[in-house]
Amino acid sequence: MFKNKKGEFRAGWKIAGMLGAVFGSLYLLVFAIQFGFSFIMMATGNLDASTGIGTPLAYQIAAVINASMMFIQTLVMIGIPILLWRKGLKKDLRSLGLPALKKHWRSMGMGLAVGAGSMTLVFLLLLFTDSAQVLTWTPQWNFSFLVMLAMYILVGYSEEIVCRGYIQGVMKQTHNPILIVLVPSILFSLMHSANSGMGLIPYLNLFLIGLYLSLITLSSGSLYPAIGYHIFWNFFQGPVYGFSVSGGMESGLLSTYMKGNSLLNGGAFGPEGGLIVTAVILLMIGVWYWKNQAQLPVLWKQLKSENVETASEE
Questions:
Q1: 47 bridge partner residues
Q2: 150 and 182 inside one domain
Q3: Of 90, 124, 153, which residue is a domain's last?
Q4: Would you write out the chain's pLDDT as a tens digit for each of its 314 residues?
Q5: How many separate domains does the chain show?
Q6: Within a domain: residue 313?
Q7: Which helix (H) or strand (E) holds 314?
Q8: What is the C-alpha to C-alpha distance for residues 141 and 157, in angstroms, rounded to an integer?
Q9: Which of 194, 248, 258, 291 could form a disulfide with 265 if both were Cys (CB 3.0 to 4.6 A apart)?
Q10: At what angle do helices 224-235 and 105-128 cross, to 10 degrees?
């Protein structure tokens, strides 16, 4: 039940253990922070225990804590899978898809460029179909722009390490190419279930995005193209073009609002909830297939073999 014929823990248990460790740690961490904050605020007279009303200082500190939670969450999602991969599975970072970046910065750069280009295509199609309108073309610069860049860098790393790194890496022990790309893509989509406005099209689009990221990870042999794509796909979607990102409201350099048919533009969820993103991601998958069709038989044979490791050099 727990182990396969080779005496390894089955992929499903490894994935469940990692996700349990990640979300369990996040729950305990949030509880500890909230308890500690409440205790200190009440002890210092900044929070009334009977009414729950705090002083301006208490609300200011609470705002800082809330703003920091996303950074804390991403650090946990980066740290725990790496720890389990290194100490639990006894594998190196190269096999997780994280070889030395100094030898793979071009693939990271290509991922960033393609991610920005893909979202720019979505932006232009939304304007062309009259599904969105830019209220002002004057960039609205502020410090939060840099903060959001830092956050999306961490989000890109964390979600790719969890899904295309750990989950996809563990699924390789099944030697089933279909499951190797489908399982992390499905779980990537389901991980966004708590986002505001989730529905059929958002689930579909997030699955397709996950599928594309799984494919480019397999063909490149590292996580860097997927990490780069993920970072700038989100960053250009929110802080640059001003769309909602997976249901989360954003303010961007441009002030853009959706109009018309929400089936095309995704409405309040953002472009990832609309069919224009569906078309763009299907196009990206088609381009990937066109570029890699010659090597697919070799890649599939490698995935079915008994010795499946990341091909990247350290």
A1: 54
A2: yes
A3: 90
A4: 777 777 678 999 999 999 999 999 999 999 999 999 999 999 998 998 888 889 999 999 998 898 889 899 999 999 999 999 999 999 999 999 999 988 889 999 999 999 999 999 999 999 999 999 998 877 777 778 888 999 999 999 999 999 999 999 999 999 999 999 999 999 999 999 988 889 999 999 999 999 999 999 999 999 999 999 999 999 999 999 989 887 666 677 888 889 988 999 999 899 999 999 999 999 999 999 999 999 999 998 888 885 655 444 44
A5: 2
A6: no
A7: none
A8: 25
A9: 258
A10: 30
CA distance 176 to 300: 9
Residue 164's identity, in one-letter code, is R
Residue in the block written with tokens 């599928």: 211
pTM: 0.91
Measured CA distances, 124 to 7, 64, 66, 130, 280 (Å): 52, 36, 34, 10, 11
Among 40, 65, 90, identify where a domain stops.
90
Rounded distance, CA 124 to CA 92, Å? 42
**197-217 burial code (b ≥16 CB/10 A, e <16):** bbeebbbbbbbbbbbbbbbbb
Name which of 63, 57, 59, 69 is nearest 31 in CA terms: 69
CB neighbour burial string for 99-109, b if at least 16 within 10 angstroms, e if fewer:
beeeebeebbe
